[in-house]
Amino acid sequence: MTKASTRDFYNRVYEVVAEIPFGRVTSYGAIAGYLGVRSGARMVGYALNTYTAEDLGFEIPAHRVLNRLGQLTGRAYFEGDSMRERLEQEGIEFIEEYTVNMEKHFWDPALLNETDPKN
DNA sequence: GCCTTGACGTTAG
DNA sequence: ACTAACGCCAAGG
Each residue's pLDDT tens digit in chain A (119 positions)? Predict the structure, then answer.
């Protein structure tokens, strides 16, 4: 085991990603910031890159995590265009081939703390 | 054990 | 408004 804190960070990332609502997207930086690691955006991406559904025991909607500009930077790690296809299925509006309308669909992880999470 | 790489983001020019 | 550079830190070579 490397460092317990590192593993915990990854697990927290998976938990947050698992809570992203259908039809909404968030960014690596937003998740990192929510976890208190402002400069850990890169680690969030790394966590998603190295995770396996078997280790977790469940699937997470990693396709709903984009960079701060709404670009599908991780599309190469998905099967074909499945990342874009999934987002389109959820009604996500694209402003470019691989860029979604962030302003419209952005979901802030901080909303998890809201008493009324109907955003 | 050093060097490079990267699902990122901010700042400087 | 656009581009370049840097900071971040875990893995893999």
Answer: 556 788 889 999 999 999 999 999 999 999 999 998 888 899 999 999 988 766 778 889 999 999 999 999 999 999 999 999 999 999 999 999 999 999 999 999 998 877 555 55
**Considering only CA atoms, which of A116, A118, A98 is closest in space to residue A107?**
A118
| Residue whose CA lies closest to nucleotide B10 C1' | A39
The pTM for the full model equals 0.90
By C1' distance from the Cα of A50, the closest nucleotide is: C11
Residue ranges near strand C (C-beta within 7 Å): A 2-3, 6, 39-43, 46, 50
Angle of helix A4-18 relative to helix A41-50, nearest 10 degrees, comes to: 80
